[in-house]
Design brief:
Umud Fragment, subunit A; 236 residues; 434 Repressor (Amino-terminal Domain); alpha+beta
Length: 236
């Protein structure tokens, strides 16, 4: 928990003394000093701090705000409840083989609508077809998605893109081909350019120039997977 560190950091960020903040929150200075030294506050006090600093209780407790960029902090303080890094996403649901190694789950076209609603459902993930690629490094988590359309030639429709899971979206380098699992537009395969500081979007570009680039709000992104390899095998 980072509550003590966060309230001290936010107080100093706003150039407030302990006395100033304590008065604003109707606390004694001694009580506030205790909270900044890891005394656990009651829930109603947590709400006070969250409302005062315009930060969610979850962020105030679980995440070290000092590690965020100035842009991220300013967005939080402006009331945006958007995770521009992806760090606060749910734990990724995976399956393992009998040796305890992670499988590569395959998401065929017919299952992609269900995937956007059930990507965190262990039973759904367990029912997907699986395979392994021994040449891929084992320090990543992989998933394979069947491609629809011809927007990312030379990879044809129906082929499979195997990609590695990206936890922190700020690590994406501009021009990286990625599978993006979206809230409203299903699963898309595009070249990604970050526009987080500009307008909290990703610019998605097709390799087939007949398709125009478009922007996707980061708030509509569920998962991002970085392209690793592709093949054309078929499954029944």
């Amino acid at each position: 928990m980072f509550f003590a560190e966060n309230i001290k950091f936010l107080r100093k960020r706003r150039r407030k003394s302990q006395a100033d903040l304590a008065e604003k929150l109707k606390l004694t200075r001694t009580t506030l000093a205790g909270y900044e030294k890891c005394v656990q506050p009651p829930f109603k006090v947590l709400i006070k701090f969250a409302e005062h600093f315009n930060v969610s209780i979850d962020a105030l407790i679980r995440y070290n705000l000092q590690e965020l960029s100035e842009f991220q902090l300013s967005q939080i303080e402006d009331g945006f409840d958007i995770d521009v890094t992806g760090r606060k996403l749910r734990l990724l649901t995976i399956s393992v083989n009998q040796d305890g190694d992670e499988n590569i789950e395959m998401v065929p076209l017919k299952a992609q609508a269900g995937y956007t609603n059930s990507y965190g459902d262990l039973e759904f993930i367990a029912d997907l077809p699986k395979f392994s690629l021994p040449f891929l490094p084992k320090n990543k988590t992989y998933r394979s998605f069947q491609i629809e359309g011809d927007s990312m030639l030379p990879i044809p429709e129906g082929d499979w893109v195997t990609a590695s899971y990206i936890q922190n979206w700020e690590d994406i380098k501009d021009g990286t081909p990625c599978i993006i699992v979206t809230q409203d537009d299903g699963i898309v395969f595009k070249v990604v350019y970050k526009q987080l500081e500009k307008n909290q979007t990703l610019l998605l570009v097709s390799s087939n120039t007949e398709y125009k680039p478009y922007e996707l709000a980061i708030s509509k992104v569920l998962e991002i997977w970085k392209f690793e390899t592709y093949n054309g095998f078929d499954i029944k």
